[in-house]
């Protein structure tokens, strides 16, 4: 489980940083009419914080639960993206692959959460 935690931590820290380095990449994921840059930075801070949280044993259960909630909240965005004529994620194929990948990430977060409950 340690390896899964490290992979998730690196992934979420990296994703959080990318929100600040390349905010334009994420603007097409955020529906029009919303403050795109503000939402992008907030999500970046959340992702970065959740990634860091996985390195603190006393916070892992809360962090994994937070990651799971975040991934659930992002699922409709990925479905919406896959239905667009030009998905923000790139090709239609990758947009459709992203949906089951989201479920795989949710399962990983769930496993980390369950494992953290055994430690408490």
Question: Please, could you describe this protein's structure?
Answer:
- The protein has 120 residues and is an all-alpha fold.
- It contains 5 helices and no strands.
- Helix content is 78%, strand content 0%.
- It is globular, with a radius of gyration of 15 Å.
Poorly predicted runs of 5 or more residues: none
Structural class: mainly alpha
Strand percentage lies at: under 5%
* Envelope shape: globular
N-end to C-end Cα span: 15 Å
Radius of gyration from CA coordinates: 15 Å
Percent helix among the residues?
over 70%
Overall pLDDT level = 94
Quick one: how many beta strands? Answer: 0
The helix tally amounts to 5
List the SSEs and their pairings:
Blueprint (H helix, E strand, L loop, with lengths): L1 H20 L1 H4 L9 H18 L6 H24 L8 H28 L1
Salient structural properties:
120 residues, mainly alpha, 5 helices
Summarize this structure briefly.
The protein is mainly α. It contains 5 helices and no strands.
